[in-house]
Design brief:
- The chain has ten helices and 19 strands.
- The chain has 437 residues and is an alpha+beta fold.
- It has two domains: 2-45 and 292-432, no CATH class; 58-288, Immunoglobulin-like (Sandwich), CATH 2.60.40.
- An eight-stranded mixed beta sheet has the order 10-9-13-7-6-15-18-17. Strands 5-2-8-12-11 form a five-stranded antiparallel beta sheet.
Length: 437
């Protein structure tokens, strides 16, 4: 039995089996590290919810709607005439929106969350149907309505209707917490030659996560600038043009709804359900890849990383006539596990790039110094440091290459496998295993 164990410990096949078992054993501490990452991520999300809940979450801007009475419809019922009130809800024409969004980081403890403030200027006009243009009662009862989230609005919208400033008042929507309809009565609309009624709106808003638009105008042009340099555009309509640099971004959307009809003639007040989310579009203010996502992605490569590191030491045993104990492999594996924990703890306080450099250098230096003793060679220890530095650099490049992560990882693995095959191309595996050929 002792001879069998000794042969298993010293043979190539036995070494490979032991290394595979050690990799499986090291999955236990790696699972603990992933649990810590998940717990810290949950704490961050809790802090994020706390900040965005107070500051304001996603701001959604829906076009203002002009509501006018239709002529009363008279019907005979139960021996008397009854009159039904009907309404027409009109969308703006050629809506123009210009705005600037200023982002900043708000802290809750050690956690920072991006939020924003901004000012949007809306300019457009409504066109009344020709057959209703002379109905004075209709015009006197008209009102303009705007659906907004009160948490996102710093003060009531500033409305200029046909050159005259109008105050807008909020009405809470039943069944919702934060949404309200801001409206202004337009009692003295006078007829003009073009049957058009220009208006302008200025909105001061705050929010986080995203800024969303829902346009029902016949044609709309939205121009937005911001100091945020990692926007994510989404929705039914993407920008016709945009620029992104270190100072921020600018984007322009163009939409058309030539046959838009809000309908709902029996309701005077607009409702959220009239504006389906499928038509929303806008920009998300997100961090490209946050700390916890990066560290989590790094742990996904842990098994591969451990296998490559152990393969390096196995080659030293095979080609350098060195015999290492499984416990020494285990120490080297634990040092890699601690790398991820060190990376997480540092990245919560300093920039991820600097945290990664410190963690990688510390881990590589620890293993290299240890290798000088177990391999009985300073040169081998220095070479281990270089090899680990290359592996950590490869891992970092893969993590930071959002669009090319798969390509980078595939090329890197192909290169590593090619090098291993090259250096062992003339090695007699049967002779090393003690088998006759």
């Amino acid at each position: 039995m002792a001879n069998t164990l000794e042969k298993l410990r010293t043979s190539i096949t036995g070494k490979i089996l032991i290394i595979g078992l050690l990799v499986l054993v090291l999955l236990i501490p790696m699972n603990m590290v992933e649990s810590v990452i998940a717990d810290r991520s949950h704490v961050y999300r809790t802090a994020e919810e706390s900040i965005t809940g107070s500051w304001g979450k996603e701001a959604v801007l829906i076009d203002p709607v002009l509501t006018v009475d239709k002529p009363n419809q008279m019907s005979w019922a139960n021996g008397a005439y009854t009159y039904d009130n009907h309404y027409r809800h009109l969308s703006p024409e050629t809506l123009s929106i210009n705005g600037h969004i200023e982002t900043q980081l708000r802290a809750r403890g050690i956690f920072k969350v991006p939020v924003y403030t901004g000012t949007l200027h809306l300019k457009s006009h409504f066109t009344l149907p020709p057959e209703e243009d002379s109905t004075i009662e209709l015009k006197r009862d008209a009102k303009i309505q705007l659906l907004l989230n009160t948490r996102s609005i710093k003060k009531p919208p500033e409305l200029t209707w046909n050159g005259e400033k109008k105050s807008m008042r909020p009405v809470k929507i039943s069944g919702t917490t934060d949404n309200a309809i801001f409206y202004a009565r337009l009692d003295n609309i006078t007829t003009n030659d073009n049957n058009t009624y220009p208006f302008e709106l200025t909105l001061e808003l705050s929010g986080s996560t995203a800024l969303t638009f829902h346009s029902r105008a016949r044609q709309s042009e939205i121009r937005l600038t911001s100091n945020w340099n990692s926007p994510s555009f989404f929705g039914a309509t993407l920008p016709m043009s945009h620029t992104i640099n270190n100072e921020g971004f600018s984007a322009e959307w163009n939409t058309s709804n030539f046959f838009a009809d809000l309908g709902h003639e029996n309701s005077e007040t607009i409702a959220e359900k009239w504006f389906p989310m499928q038509s929303n579009f806008g920009v998300k203010f997100i961090q490209t890849v946050d700390t916890y996502q990066l560290v989590t992605r790094a742990t996904k490569y842990a098994v591969l990383f451990l296998t490559l590191i152990f393969a390096v030491y196995l080659l030293y045993e095979i080609l350098g006539n060195v015999l290492l104990h499984p416990l020494q492999y285990l120490f080297i594996g634990f040092s890699n596990c601690i790398f991820y924990l060190l990376l997480l703890s540092l990245a919560e306080h300093i920039h991820f790039n600097l945290a990664y450099v410190i963690s990688a250098v510390s881990s590589a230096l620890l293993v290299a110094l240890y290798s000088m003793s177990i391999l009985k060679s300073r040169a081998h220890g220095a070479l281990i440091f270089v090899k680990l530095s290359v592996l950590y650099t490869f891992l970092y490049t893969t993590l930071k290459s959002e669009d090319y992560a798969l390509l980078t990882g595939s090329i890197g693995l192909f290169t590593i496998l090619s090098l291993i095959m090259y250096f062992t191309r003339n090695f007699n595996w049967y002779r090393a295993a003690g088998e006759s050929v």
